[in-house]
Amino acid sequence: LIGRLMFELPEEMGLIAVAVRQTQGKGRGGNVWLSPVGCALSTLHISIPLHSNLGQRIPFIQHLVSLAVVEAVRSIPGYEDIDLRVKWPNDIYYSDLMKLGGVLVNSTLLETTFHILIGFGFNVNNSNPTICINDLIAKFNKEEGTELKPLSADCLIARTVTVLERLIDIFQEKGPNGVLPQYYKYWIHSGKQVRLHHEEGPLAWIVGIDDYGYLQVHEEGKGVESVHPDGNSFDMLRNLLVPK
Description:
Shape: globular
Number of strands: 12
CATH class of the largest domain: Alpha Beta
Helix content: 10-25%
Structural class: alpha+beta
Strand order of the largest sheet: 1-2-6-5-4-3
Strand content: 25-35%
CATH topology of the largest domain: BirA Bifunctional Protein, domain 2
Number of helices: 5
Radius of gyration: 18 Å
Order of helices and strands: HEEHEEEEHHHEEEEEE
Mean pLDDT: 86
């Protein structure tokens, strides 16, 4: 629906679809995305000029959206220490333990404008099959003696889009360095060591993200290399960076 509508509307008009639940949700690489009631689910359309900071670094969009989801919660007064984090390239995590949500970005270049469709979904209210944001808030209240209120999916979608607009503006003005300090504050990979390719593969340290949004790893004796997100994925349970 949005794929058809996005070319029909005036450029300055925003467009977002919000679902209470999805029956045919899609993840990266053709994976099925489970979308029960209680999740925040939406697809957002944005336009990015090709000849702009972000237009030259389109892979960064998924990082900005992941950061926006985390910021949507952790920028609320009192909620700063809820342990919500980002995992490269496009996942939302509780600490480095469990996945709470994800981001899927599709782009179409028409003349000198990228039309970007951003699908994002994260678990707000469902304790199963893993954990949800309101569980994290309840856990925090119990441990810290606070009385933070549960959050709604609608509120978090609205906050995510608002934060994302601000992050895009900052990126367009200052480039990657305008947003990376905040991204690194929340990402789960700082100082982590991984095996490349397979369980007996070479050891490498995760360095950060390069100017185009690709992961940088430092393999002993080989220097720093960039890893493309479309060809590789993290297996968090086995601490592997593996080709897909």
